[in-house]
Amino acid sequence: IILHTSFRTDINITCLNKLSLRNVAMSSSSQTQIIEHVVLFKVKDDVDSGKIDAMVNDLKGLVTLDEVLYLSAGPIHRLRSKSAFTHVLHSRYRSKEDLSAYVAHPAHVRVVDEYIPIWEDIVALDWIADQVPNTLAPPPGSVAKITLLKVKENVSDEARTKIMEVIKEKSPGIDQITVGENFTPVRANGFSVGSVAYFKDLGEMETHKDLDKEKVGEYLDDIIVVELVVPSSSSAA
Description:
alpha+beta, Alpha-Beta Plaits, four-stranded antiparallel β-sheet, 29% strand, Dimeric_a/b-barrel, Stress-response A/B barrel domain-containing protein, HS1/DABB1-like, Dabb
């Protein structure tokens, strides 16, 4: 897959998503792989709240597009990062081709043109999930915990394998978790490993421990952890 390197094109890949009732009902039995797509936005401090609400609604409004299996977008519930990101988007696709197919879609271009001026920063990662979740579309009220890792340069393959194993350590309450290595470095800002874990609710999530830095911290330059409560509009087209 060849991706253009312009800021606008990368935002196109970042934002274009769709969820249909047909896809909500789809289970992992019909999928051989899943592409996870995560985008963190930092909205400028001086942006009017009405404009921010419109941005979120317009991102959600792209659910009418076809191949996306799942989408959730909204304000970050809780952030652990040196960067002050404000919003997050998570979507799922059948393939890299499906993800890239939306780059030039007119509906997506319209949203990009409208909201690029209010985005101060973006980090975007795409990865092939190490496993296909049993439920592709977590229900409203679920909580996503998204972890992005900036792995140090020249880390050995053995260390990378250890990082993946530590991320996948499953705690009670996790409905699903996937992990993988980013294949779209243009807007990743050096982050190379991503993980998404879904919990039934905030209470279940509070019992989950963050990545064990004692085991893999020596291999990492940075970690971002964000939490997103799945809004009701994520579960229907």
